Amino acid sequence: MFQTLALYAIDEPDDRDGNPAPHPLSDPPVPSEPPRFPTTPPDPHLQAIRKLSTREREVLLHLAQYKTMNQIAACLFISPTTVNNHKARMSEKLNLKGRHRLLRFAQSVQHLL
């Protein structure tokens, strides 16, 4: 009544050395050496920004726009003390000493934020 159909894979050599052909669903062969592309050195500013939390990046963006602590606090719905704490942590993470260095850094990386 019902006929069954059996499928059999035939292992035939693919090349002249007698190596079997790869299975069509198997992973592609991995090259022995990765392709060489011209690489640019990583941007030190980008690496520094990655150390910061998302909220610290938001504060840094507002600092780059010359906003005061009270203005930043109002925009982010946090207290001015929290803004000050974020600024202190950012200065520590980025190894910046002095109040103006954080502002200069924020202005130089504003396009990356």
Can you describe what's shown?
The chain is mostly helical. It is built from five helices and no strands. Helix 2 crosses helix 4, helix 2 crosses helix 5 and helix 3 packs across helix 4. The longest helix is centred in the last third of the chain and has 14 residues. The mean pLDDT is 80.
User: What are the low-pLDDT stretches, counting only 5+ consecutive residues below 50?
Assistant: none
Radius of gyration: 29 Å
β-strand percent reads under 5%
Number of strands: 0
- Please give the alpha-carbon distance between the first and last residues: 70 Å
Rough shape? Answer: elongated
Q: Average pLDDT, to the nearest integer?
A: 80
Name the helix and strand elements from N-terminus to C-terminus, one letter apiece. HHHHH
The major β-sheet equals: none
Structural class: mainly alpha
| Number of helices in the DSSP assignment | 5
The proportion of residues forming helix, as a percent range, comes to 40-55%
Task: Write a brief structural summary.
Helices cover 44% and strands 0% of the residues.
Q: What is the strand and helix layout of this fold?
A:
Layout: H1 44-50, H2 54-64, H3 69-76, H4 80-93, H5 99-108
Helix pairs in contact: 2-4, 2-5, 3-4
Record keyword descriptors for this entry.
113 residues; mainly alpha; 5 helices
